[in-house]
């Protein structure tokens, strides 16, 4: 029969039971006295034998067949039950007995136990009523054969439905077969019809549920605790056991528990948790709970784990198994326990004090229960009226009484702990005995009190009473410092437990400060009144506690014996009674055989008889053993504490002296002070001799030890003593550590004198008195002689025989090198004071120090004139070496110093002069160079006129003012704080810091007491930028060169030296900077800037790369070209530019693949340019070519060339390169008729005023701009609605504005009067793509210049197709440079489109301009500097003449001129004068030694140009806004220039000679058709910067204006005119024009600068108020520069006017001067003037009368014109453009102002005498 493991819901419980008899009698008894048990079975059967009313001890017979396990009660540990189990297999019926003995009464109760097989069973229930689906339990009783209950063979079992379940008819074992319900029937065969029924349901399990129950110590579940079902987490307690039960429930809304059979597979897993153990259930609970579904959990340690239980069962079809699982988290916690302080040996009782309105609190702490925070506990108090408790465990005593406080874990209500809290009123207060009662003076003594309850127990805590307890000290020697403050250090947590264990907690505490020594009582008082409304208490609470306290002085050890005469240091024993005046003794050195007294001071005083007082000394050697080397007497001195130390043997010892009170009555802790002394009994390592000292002081000994000594142990520095006296000499022994001995008297000294025969001798009177000629102290008599004498002391041995026997050998070893010393005495008799002369600045705060040498320290000073100088107190410690003087008034005094300490007295005198400053000078040179941001110190020197200078200390009182002309540098004070605009310094040096680049002037001034200001010389200060090498990086081929330059760096008095780190790669000339590449590689260049003195100022670095290129490329700025336009083309290497190789390469072969598309060269109109091009050697510029676009299409351009590279002097051989590039020529549009009138402009650009008569703009819709009759507008579609601000091209007044590129617009011009409308111009917006160097005189890429010549080259910009821009000013950043700046230099301002080029010396240089310094966007021009014929290639008209000359050559001694065709031009062979005689062209050549030059001359038929100068004088002040007009016309026909062509532009050019004076431009009057060259002179400021700095330059210049036709570059003859130019001037201050000067007493001087023509006259009215003097001049004609100092010399308020006139031009300028003085100074000046005015009043009247009378007698017959200055000359006025100029007018006459200027110059010429009255009228001069 198949057995199914279905789970059954049983209504019958098959449990072995016994027939029990209940005993109801009183006293201890047990429930059963006869028990039937089956024998040992597979599943053990246990029976609980229950007892009551007693505490039993169990025993039994036959332990081999029966097991008895007692069970104990949890509360009182008594056993009231026991579990019985048979442990032997069946071998027949057995009988035994179990005895229960009551431990209290002694009664023993016997229970009889039978072990046998069951014979029958019986169901106890006869009828059962069940609800639907309900369950009931049936109890079955079993009987043995003797009718003792057990399973019986008379029972027959059956089921009503065998398809559901089967049952064993004999044993009653039931097997479930399928799901369903049936009835189980049991019958008793002995009784007919006697049966019992039970319902059996077979179901499937649905859920598993775990239950946990706490087990008692006996193993039984705790009574009253219901099992806890599965929840989120179980909390168990470590160390306890728990019963885990598994229950299975069926499906449905009314789930029932399912019986678990033995065939069901149940497993318990604990996931290998180490926090608990899972064990099977054992008896006695095994009989009550299934072994299969229950387990015991033993919690071992704290932690979290998971418990898993599974059930495996068959499903309803019996084909598969199902598994149910349940997982439960279990956390093991520690037992909750109170952490309570143990007081008085009691535990688990907390005692708290209480007083009216005083509520003591105490924080209780608990541990365990898996708590992580205080909120994880729950606190309970059994009586909140006695003790309240907070949620955080803080209890508060409310009133006297008892309460139980319980703490429970928030996670487990069975995990708790309890403590009893008792509240009582304190009955007494005592001082805590944990603290000392004695302390040292100057320290704090801690004290505390605690309280006791009525039973004498200490309270657990009482700190709330701290503020209610008052402290008081009974003596003024003690001060309570912390009576009510926070708890002191001893009350902190780390010490509170210790104190509580000893005496109880601190209720109140304090610190008592001991100010002086003594004893006192410390009182603590607590007083509290009961409230009147509380009748339960009566009377106040008053508690007191006292403690005796004391303070003592620190225990110190002092030396009581003096070693001054015994080879030791001196001690003043007279101070032994005042211990605070003696030095502490911590180390002592004694020589064996000597002794010394020491004295103890301070320490605790004797307390009383009840406390033992101790005073001991212990002696330890290095091995800490007692030693006999110290002798301690047994009898103390009268003062006590006196010890005599006797040194007998060598060694180092430690002496520990102790004094204090031990523990006794009122003295709970010992108070013992101790002091130690290190005693060294040793031999001295050296001795020192002390001379002329009264005693052997420690500092004197240390000075002697540290003195330098010669090889003979003689002091190098002599001791200076005054002769004629007796001095003391002594010696002291010195230890190896350098400390002196206290006593060396056991050693004997030998004293010797060296070279002292006539100087000194021993005083034997002292020797006989001391009766010890080998002692350590002697006296020396000094005679009245000066000189040097040596005193020597040497140790000869021990004076005692015992010591000599023991230590003579060691002493002999030491004396060879060390035990001798000598001092040199310098006998002097002169007292010295230095310096002998001292210049003292007159200032009340000034001080002067005089140095005193010689003599003694007893000085007296006398001044012969106390009105000049006085002696002030010297600083402490310097009275013998220094004398301080203070000035009282101007003058000279003699200061005499007397040495009253010497007999006879010595005297020394010095001269002291008190003076005011008379001159001051800057000592840092005439020039200073500073890098921007750096600083430098500037030194000063000041003195008086006789050459004497002030000491460095006197400058602090001079109030020196530093003046800085420009804000280029700033003054720094001593704290490095900037002082702007100059400031005052108080030292001999001051610091300046460079702020901005430039050059300024610096000088200093100091004011005398009279108010006069003393000035120093002015020095130049240059602030330079950090230097950089240009170019910073360069690429060269081997053999190429480049001239390096320095940008930035100093320029005044500095020079540069260049070096290369590796000369094998690139060498650089040291001074010129010429760089030459030698071999491939990389190296670094260094440029060092040196000053005049040769010191390095700064450095700059650069890099050079040398390499042989492997290939070349052709470069054009744009690969597109329009027809009719040109573009330059040149080769490049992958690195570098043309500078890198152009000098080393040659044989350029240029080819064009399709010459119909492109062509080399530029087609020039006219033969002149062609001829000039042929004059230049094409090979010199063959590295660059020009491409001209001829027809649309694409073609290739190629070049080949060879380069000769040179490396380290050797030739590398020629290398050939070739390169090609493809260019596209773009054709014009078929109807591009507007191209000639199209202006190309860059994007986002605003033009200049290029629209004539169009200056006003109106924001109308048609963008019209009009002025006069012309209206301009943009052509556009009428339907266009774009705003003006958004248009690509717009009109703004007379300017045009552009925005984005690739836009085109046209401008329409309309005459408002006639209505005529035309297209004025078109505008195309394009990007700047190309840059060119343009010059109409040099159309090719080469220029010939003479040395010194200057030329301006224009920079032009083009678009990608080569179209020129109409305007493109400052659109892009262009760079210009030459590879040899020493040949041709560039003045590139970067903000214009012009390059100013100047020829410096003979040679060739390459000029490069580029866009953003890019090699691909560059253009080049070769500059050749040397001698050439001037003018070059002139064009003349027939009949005109020209003068040829050579420019740039110094050798013209044997020159010769020659004309190739004299029918065209006749030439003078020596002078170069030539005349054009016929039409045609010829060559003019010049030959000299080593020079052969030529030029081409073209003679044209027709008339020549004539230029006429204006009649007025030319000047630059005032500036002519319309320029000076030079008329230009033809000489013979009188035709106007405009008749030569139809263009409205002037067909001629105008130039100025010399060019630095100004510039000229052509201008034509369209109304009169007259032509002019307008000359505009430069301002004086510009001339100062640009004029050549040449000597003997005049303030006037003859200016020539040259005019030439544009198609003929040079026209000579009468094509120029000259006029006199007289320069004007301008007045500047701090770089700005001025019209007014405001001066104050703090700033009573200033500097003005006159620029330009400085031959001026300066006048002002107040000669007694203002002084003007020139201080610096730079005279270079019209570009001169003169600085004037304007200084106020009066103290009163005034206003004046400085008038500056230039006689040569009549220019006049005025500067207002305002002076505002201090009010007090002004009032004093007013009183002085008023006084002198009254005194001189009458005398002035008499003088005026006399003068009038004399003048009347001497007056001339004729009238004399008034003496007035000449009227100012009006500025030149440009003539009206409509007035024609006459050709037959004479040359300009000399202007009248210039004639007046010449007359004045002659008048002021020395030795040229005239009558006085002629000076009033220049007309009377000639």
From TrEMBL:
<keyword id="KW-0472">Membrane</keyword>
<keyword id="KW-1133">Transmembrane helix</keyword>
<feature type="transmembrane region" description="Helical">
    <location>
        <begin position="1731"/>
        <end position="1753"/>
    </location>
</feature>
<dbReference type="GO" id="GO:0031965">
    <property type="term" value="C:nuclear membrane"/>
</dbReference>
<dbReference type="InterPro" id="IPR045197">
    <property type="entry name" value="NUP210-like"/>
</dbReference>
<feature type="region of interest" description="Disordered">
    <location>
        <begin position="1761"/>
        <end position="1796"/>
    </location>
</feature>
<keyword id="KW-0812">Transmembrane</keyword>
<dbReference type="Pfam" id="PF26182">
    <property type="entry name" value="Ig_NUP210_5th"/>
</dbReference>
<feature type="domain" description="BIG2">
    <location>
        <begin position="1423"/>
        <end position="1498"/>
    </location>
</feature>
<dbReference type="InterPro" id="IPR055096">
    <property type="entry name" value="Ig_NUP210_1st"/>
</dbReference>
<dbReference type="InterPro" id="IPR056233">
    <property type="entry name" value="Ig_GP210_16th"/>
</dbReference>
<comment type="similarity">
    <text>Belongs to the NUP210 family.</text>
</comment>
<feature type="signal peptide">
    <location>
        <begin position="1"/>
        <end position="22"/>
    </location>
</feature>
<dbReference type="Pfam" id="PF22962">
    <property type="entry name" value="Ig_NUP210_7th"/>
</dbReference>
<dbReference type="Pfam" id="PF24427">
    <property type="entry name" value="Ig_GP210_16th"/>
</dbReference>
<feature type="domain" description="BIG2">
    <location>
        <begin position="1023"/>
        <end position="1099"/>
    </location>
</feature>
<dbReference type="Pfam" id="PF24425">
    <property type="entry name" value="Ig_GP210_15th"/>
</dbReference>
<dbReference type="InterPro" id="IPR055094">
    <property type="entry name" value="NUP210_Ig15"/>
</dbReference>
<dbReference type="Pfam" id="PF22959">
    <property type="entry name" value="Ig_NUP210_15th"/>
</dbReference>
<dbReference type="InterPro" id="IPR056232">
    <property type="entry name" value="Ig_GP210_15th"/>
</dbReference>
<keyword id="KW-0732">Signal</keyword>
<feature type="domain" description="BIG2">
    <location>
        <begin position="345"/>
        <end position="416"/>
    </location>
</feature>
<dbReference type="InterPro" id="IPR055099">
    <property type="entry name" value="Ig_NUP210_7th"/>
</dbReference>
<dbReference type="InterPro" id="IPR008964">
    <property type="entry name" value="Invasin/intimin_cell_adhesion"/>
</dbReference>
<keyword id="KW-0325">Glycoprotein</keyword>
<dbReference type="Pfam" id="PF22967">
    <property type="entry name" value="Ig_NUP210_1st"/>
</dbReference>
<dbReference type="InterPro" id="IPR003343">
    <property type="entry name" value="Big_2"/>
</dbReference>
<protein>
    <submittedName>
        <fullName>Nuclear pore complex protein GP210 isoform X2</fullName>
    </submittedName>
</protein>
<keyword id="KW-0539">Nucleus</keyword>
